[in-house]
């Protein structure tokens, strides 16, 4: 394994041996470690002193089930704090097979440039990419595959990344070559754009594969873990059938589906945008309702969604996106939401922050609530770089300022995802206290609050929510380091042997002797690192709070977010 360091000012490319303290780290653990050690927390996120770290997880590239997650770490231009954003697609597996522990991109060109980074089994190189200027991710990928080969992986930024908008994402191609998997949150695409990079092309060649210390033991643990995932009703049945959009009806019934900019907990047209409706439409139009976002995924909760003519429209059509442009904006037309998902993938922008920003534009009376045609045009403006497009593309917090609206659902300037913190209180604790800003994946309390996975904690009561969020944030930080999909957590929470099998796979691959308790310690250490970075960047306990309007009663359960400041401050104290 090696680390590649790319300096975008002098175009130097160097290779380093992996430090001993990095050997047991991967994914988020490694990106947060390098950013914490090498980046001045007070630097400008788009300046020369920020860095972007790309790291596959510890198990990425291996035969471990659903282990193709890639982490990208940086100082976020959206939150101003540390950021790890991860994605599926084919990049993590490919980089791991090439033997890269991490790629560190630092400094920036003296003048405006656009470059292509090529990673092959021979070397890493830098080429001019001016011919790709202001092209969307779909066209960029098509051009690069035509030029360099159809099987290459492409990581790219669209127009939003080139314009360095704060909600810009980094697209990663899926198994069909579509740019549908995104390091979406926190503006990682703006940082890549600030380094003068349009795309990273990765070609593993034909012979590369990860090496195992004890392959037989690895495969035994892998088969056992796979069975646990597929035997679980959520990861083995619900998600493969209906995708993450299965949650629309579930959250609506629970009164936790944020509607009309978090004014209500139920959406009267939830059925129109549900996973069940999407499943029927996909099959009717001969799309693919069960699709793997990366090689080796056994849950296959993604999909390929066709338009009314039966032509491919978008893929990776997720619950969060459907909610952000749907219930949040009072839009009930699933095809309209799919068009906005396609636009966001192409422009290269976070669907959550963009959808919430569109809803805030409705709040500010720029367009009418529920007007899907106007919403589509607003997202198109982001790609054009018009003044209103740049406002939306800089995220929900910026849009709220632009329109002078009071009701802006953000924490640390990052938009809240698709669960109302008043009726799913554990997720509210996570939103408030995660170093990443409002992020459902940082500690997914929906497991015990709504789905009854890993026990049951009443979502409407404050009791047990802090402990639930804390334990899940610790576990998530560790899982994000392995390269495993977050959805393996369902098996881990309900099967006491699952975490041990993950440990067995790591030990069999790397000849280590870690235990389950070491995984918990790793998660805690990652969170401590991230909190300390944010503290150096100027964050205080006052940043670990939800907006004050969550003191308003939420129907249908007539609840408020009543976790005290003192309780929030205890969440990540280890």
Task: Describe the protein's architecture and organization.
Helix 6 runs antiparallel to helix 20 (498-510). It is globular and about 60 Å long. The two termini are 32 Å apart. The protein contains 22 helices and 17 strands. The strands form four sheets. It has a six-stranded mixed β-sheet with strand order 2-1-6-3-4-5, with helices on both faces. Strands 8-7-12-9-10-11 form a six-stranded mixed β-sheet, with helices on both faces. The protein has a three-stranded antiparallel β-sheet with strand order 13-14-15. By secondary structure, the protein is an alpha+beta fold. The model has no long low-confidence stretch (mean pLDDT 96).
Number of strands: 17
Q: In order across it, which strands form the biggest sheet? A: 2-1-6-3-4-5
Instruction: Give the CA-based shape.
Output: globular
DSSP helix fraction: 25-40%
Please report the number of helical segments: 22
Structural class: alpha+beta
Q: If you compute it from the alpha carbons, what radius of gyration comes out, rounded to the nearest whole angstrom?
A: 22 Å
Low-confidence stretches: none
Percent of residues in beta strands: 5-15%
Largest sheet: 6 strands, mixed
How far the N terminus sits from the C terminus, by CA atoms, comes to 32 Å
Q: Mean pLDDT across all residues, rounded? A: 96
């Amino acid at each position: 394994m090696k680390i590649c360091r790319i300096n975008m000012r002098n175009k130097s490319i160097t290779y380093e041996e992996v430090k001993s303290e990095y050997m047991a780290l991967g994914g988020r653990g490694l990106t947060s470690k390098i950013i914490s050690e090498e980046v001045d927390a007070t630097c400008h996120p788009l300046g020369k002193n920020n860095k972007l770290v790309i790291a596959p997880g510890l198990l990425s590239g291996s035969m471990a089930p659903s282990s193709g997650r890639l982490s990208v770490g940086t100082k976020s231009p959206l939150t101003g704090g540390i950021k790890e954003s991860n994605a599926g697609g084919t990049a993590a597996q490919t980089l791991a097979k090439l033997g890269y522990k991490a790629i560190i991109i630092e400094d920036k060109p003296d003048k405006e440039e656009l470059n292509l980074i090529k990673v092959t089994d021979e070397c890493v190189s830098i080429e001019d990419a001016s011919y790709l200027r202001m092209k969307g991710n779909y066209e960029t990928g098509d051009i690069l595959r035509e030029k360099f080969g159809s099987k290459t992986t492409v990581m790219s930024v669209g127009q939003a990344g080139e314009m360095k908008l704060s909600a810009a994402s980094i697209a990663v191609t899926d198994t069909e070559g579509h740019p549908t998997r995104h390091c979406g949150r926190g503006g990682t695409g703006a940082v890549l754009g600030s380094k003068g990079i349009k795309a990273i092309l990765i070609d593993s060649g034909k012979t590369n594969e990860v090496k195992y210390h004890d392959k037989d033991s690895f495969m035994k643990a892998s088969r056992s873990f796979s069975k646990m995932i597929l035997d679980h009703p959520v990861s083995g049945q619900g998600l493969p059938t209906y995708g993450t959009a299965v949650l629309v009806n579930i959250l609506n019934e629970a009164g936790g589906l944020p509607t009309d900019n978090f004014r209500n907990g139920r959406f009267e047209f939830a059925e129109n945008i549900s996973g069940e409706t999407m499943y029927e439409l996909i099959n009717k139009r001969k799309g693919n309702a069960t699709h793997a976002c990366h090689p080796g995924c056994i849950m296959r909760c993604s999909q390929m969604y066709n338009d009314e003519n039966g032509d491919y429209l978008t893929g990776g059509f997720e619950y969060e996106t459907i909610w952000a442009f749907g219930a949040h904006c009072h839009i009930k037309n699933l095809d309209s939401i799919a068009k906005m998902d396609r636009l966001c993938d192409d422009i290269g922008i976070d669907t959550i922050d963009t959808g919430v920003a569109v809803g805030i534009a409705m709040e500010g009376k720029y367009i009418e609530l529920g007007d899907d045609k106007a919403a589509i045009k607003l997202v198109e403006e982001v790609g054009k770089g018009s003044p209103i497009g740049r406002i939306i593309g800089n995220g929900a917090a910026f849009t709220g300022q632009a329109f002078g609206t009071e009701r802006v659902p953000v924490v640390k300037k990052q938009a809240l995802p698709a669960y109302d913190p008043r009726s799913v209180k554990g997720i509210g604790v996570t939103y408030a206290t995660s170093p990443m800003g409002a992020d459902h994946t940082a500690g997914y309390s929906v497991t015990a609050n709504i789905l009854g996975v890993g026990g049951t904690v009443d979502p409407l009561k404050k009791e047990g929510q802090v402990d639930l969020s804390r334990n899940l944030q610790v576990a998530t930080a560790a899982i994000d380091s392995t390269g495993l999909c977050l959805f393996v957590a369902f098996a881990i929470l309900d099967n006491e042997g699952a975490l041990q099998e993950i440990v067995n796979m790591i030990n069999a691959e790397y000849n280590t002797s870690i235990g389950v308790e070491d995984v918990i310690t790793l998660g805690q250490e990652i969170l401590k690192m991230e909190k300390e970075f944010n503290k150096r960047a100027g964050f205080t306990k006052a940043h670990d709070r939800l907006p004050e309007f969550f003191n308003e009663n939420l129907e249908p359960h007539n609840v408020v977010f009543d976790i005290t400041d003192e309780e929030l401050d205890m969440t990540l104290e280890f």
